[in-house]
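hey team, just a heads up i'm posting the complex here instead of the shared drive bc the drive is being weird again. everything in one block, sequence lines first with there labels, then the predicted structure for the whole assembly after. its four chains so it's a bit long, scroll down
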Amino acid sequence: MEYEQLKLDNQLCFRLYTAARLTTGAYHPYLEPLGITYPQYLVLLVLWEKDRQPVNDIARRLMLETNTVTPLLQRMEKAGLIVRTKGQEDSRQRIVSLTKKGIEMREQAKHIPECLATDIIKTTGSVEEIMQMIPMLDKLIEGLKQTNNNKFK
Amino acid sequence: MEYEQLKLDNQLCFRLYTAARLTTGAYHPYLEPLGITYPQYLVLLVLWEKDRQPVNDIARRLMLETNTVTPLLQRMEKAGLIVRTKGQEDSRQRIVSLTKKGIEMREQAKHIPECLATDIIKTTGSVEEIMQMIPMLDKLIEGLKQTNNNKFK
DNA sequence: CAAATTTATATCGTTCACGATGCAAAAGTA
DNA sequence: TACTTTTGCATCGTGAACGATATAAATTTG
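-- predicted structure starts here --
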């Protein structure tokens, strides 16, 4: 059949797109009480590992463009989770730091990964099989970073 | 370490989120000349398999909400790819059909899946390893559909 | 050192994605 | 048949995601 490869069911990318949307949705019940979104949660993960980072470092870590991250940070600042201060050595930079509220949220978010794992186990049976994807996803992501014109170096 | 599970590198979901964004980005150079976006391409895939479907069937197939699909279809109609006509048996329904332009685009899009596969092979070395994820993603997606409160039944 | 280039971030416009809500048509029920 | 509920789709508001563009500060170059 000539158009066989255009069938939705044959497409890896559609599965990734769907799986990503549904996982984000699975986080929703846990993030909503904290008043944050999934991308905001990702920013917090980055800052909980290392506080006081310039916008660019956060963007690179999340493999997002700065014009995605900037408005994200502006909303988080308005929500009182972070503050953005001018860099001292390099005054073009904006250093992002956690506020008291942002630091304390770590404690409230502590159990979210386990909750997600439990949810997935409950409906898929095992989480081990799913976790096998991790090295494959890493390989794919590494490849795609190159494919997409070395946007993230 | 108490917050070990909150590390970004330990998170499957972040990888899915990133892989999905980057794959969509990898489609961009092939879709842009056609004047369509990745979600619009997905709608076309669905309609190329079976023309004349109500909004709801398209949404269910893509596992999207109708309030995402409706504006998507409106833009596609404005672009001349589809038309939306009132259903005959059930006049609440809007039947989505391909236009001549929409039908003809199939020919132009025919090679896109191969192009993507080639791009991925070029940067990751093999596509077989990546394709192993397909059954795992299907299992995860099935599980998440249930997790997310049976939104898509 | 002055001019050109690069870098860090921000702004703008368009397109998703989805929760909440609205509305009319269909289906179920008293 | 009248009333209630459900269903199919649309509208609205908010938050991403990103291409294109802007701006100021740093860096490089002549």
